[in-house]
Amino acid sequence: MRPAQDALAARLREAFPEFGADDARTFAAMLLAGHGPGLVDLPEPEFLARVRRDRDYSPSRLVPDAAAVLDRYAEESRKARETVPWKEIAYGDDPMARIDLFPADGPLLIYIHGGYWQELDKSDSAFMVPGLHAQGVTVAVLGYGLAPRLDLDAIVAMVRAGVRFLTGAAGSRPVYLAGSSAGAHLAAMCLPDERVSGAILLSGVYDLEPLVGTYINGAVGMDEATARRNSPLRLPIETPPSIVARGEREPAGFSEQHEAWLRAHPGDSLIVQDRNHFDLPLDLGDPSTTLGRKALELMGVRP
């Protein structure tokens, strides 16, 4: 890949002056993984249009320390499992159809992780548990299968099955959904469930058609029909009370998706200063932050 990566990085730097040398090489590697080496030789208009769309949906491009934030997810999740009682529950036959449940006496929050349907895991996604558990919130971190092993229809079906399992077991306890990025998309796809009392959608993608031609789709493999039927913005959804949030430092695609969802489904819009696509979810378990406070208010919990 090295010659193609170097050639693509050079072309990126020529077309997009904001790219530094290291950023261009990193982004070039992601583009080649999703598009293949033919991207390097596209004629200029098609190349520019393709890369602009990729750039608009690449949050790591704006966050030099994204890997460090993901490491923090994993470390804080590990500490949560060491300090808060929990159990793993199966909700289906697939080995990924598992839930990490952290019981408490209050409302149930189901958290669905992001990773563009192809990365991360429930084991990385319990970082908000200590702060919420201290306020009496039960947290269920939902695991699900990833692309390319599963296609998007199967991923959505698995997550819906997990949410139905949890809402069915919740009894009279109110249930709230939360998700980040692809997890916000999956949470939105579950909102027709009448047992859901509210939602917290962070940096979500709600119309998937713009992703079909991007490097992100290399592993997911959506065609336009798949994207349309799995786009919550295109579905007749009655939304419960919701927080719809994004970081101040998000790429253009996520900002556009945020506004489009709110036009269709008005909710409590929150654009959090000094936060990006990756560090915003960390606020969910911190009642001293605006997002953490509003999440507790939505769930009827007073810190």
From TrEMBL:
Against InterPro entries, the record matches this protein to: AB_hydrolase_fold, BD-FAE-like_dom, GDXG_lipolytic_enzyme
List residues of the BD-FAE-like domain: 107-189
Q: What is its EC number?
A: 3.5.1.9
Q: Which UniProt keywords apply?
A: Hydrolase
- Which stretches are annotated as coiled coil? none
Q: Which Pfam families match?
A: BD-FAE
**What Gene3D superfamilies would the database entry show?**
alpha/beta hydrolase
Q: Which SUPFAM superfamilies match?
A: alpha/beta-Hydrolases
One GO MF term attached to the UniProt entry: arylformamidase activity
Record's PANTHER family? AB HYDROLASE SUPERFAMILY PROTEIN C4A8.06C (PTHR48081), KYNURENINE FORMAMIDASE (PTHR48081:SF33)
- Name of the protein in question: Alpha/beta hydrolase
